[in-house]
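To whoever picks this up:

The parser on our side crashed when reading a file containing two proteins. I've narrowed it down to the boundary between the first structure block and the second sequence. Both blocks are reproduced below exactly, byte for byte. First block:
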Amino acid sequence: MIWTIRTGSGSYVLREQIEPADEPGLLDLFRSCNDWFEAVTGGPSGNGDVQGLFYSLPEGARFEDKRLFTLRDGERIVGFIDVVLGYPHRRACSIGTFLLAPSHRRAGIGTAVSRVLLEEARHAGIDEVIASADDRWPQGIAFLRSLGFTTDEPDGQSAPRRAVLTLSAVD
């Protein structure tokens, strides 16, 4: 599927398909998001991070349920979202990664993309959306909360906390 996302800062194209020709653009996006990679993983992104997108799945998930989305500003890839449908249960989906280039943050673009995808999930019968909330990336936690996600309380560990959005509770 392809959606046009219109915001106050312009129009963007969201695509639910990644092709081999997208790899250089994804590498550029990942390099531009090194602030996130360094905060959350302790190091910069590398070529293996992009390649791993196609293969990484939580235990018990199926490859046919994985969705990879790119957000484009013209020809440039400025965002990436990794989702697994039907995980951890049939009426849920899990967000593995949601990256937005620093040049496109704090302009309402991530919120607009999220609203489109959440509406698509609702129409597909998804009731619950699960994401990770990492204390090392507080702006990500604030973003999730702005969308209506609730997060587990910190437990003093460095592992990400679980963030949950019940779609029936959101307008």
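<<boundary where parser fails>>
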Amino acid sequence: MRKKRIITKEELINIGKDVFSEKGYFLSKVSDIVKKAGVCQGTYYLHFESKKDILAEIINEFHKDVYKILFEENYLYKDYSDLLIKKELNLFNYFMENYKTTLLIFREGYGEIEFVEKLTKIHEEMTKSRKDILEKLMNNDDVKAELYGYILGGILRGVFMYAVEKKLTKERYIPLLKEVLENFLKTLNLV
């Protein structure tokens, strides 16, 4: 008789991340997750009703981590330009350290209608964080601050995709991103 494997909800979530990253969320099946976990489907259903439940957990964890970086961490900074750079470097580093999850969420999460609102909220929070700092740098011009916050978000998505595709190490992508951020702020005459 084979010994039953005991697996936690967190372990199933991590295996789900791996499977979704390898196969894509929409091509993955619960059977792929349980096979990789080495458990029966019944064990899976003790923790989750469907594969959407795992994606929901992944998105919630991602959101919690991003929110913490944007609004709860205490940054030491000399001016608002420095604060913006430090927050963006922290956020970018989190995305790179969790690049498979980041790609999964932003590429495939929008395909599930239930998650669009949550993902939109994450984007709005990132934009708000940028806007709040840029507004202080731009003499309270909230329209320009919001516009440049969106533009900066687009630039950072481009740098993220480049860093992932080129498999850049932290030693390479941090100075590159810092240079991009400094040049962005210089272009706007904010440094």
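After patching the parser it read the second block fine. The CA atoms of residues 159 and 177 lie 7 Å apart. The domain at 52-187 is CATH 1.10.357 (Tetracycline Repressor; domain 2).
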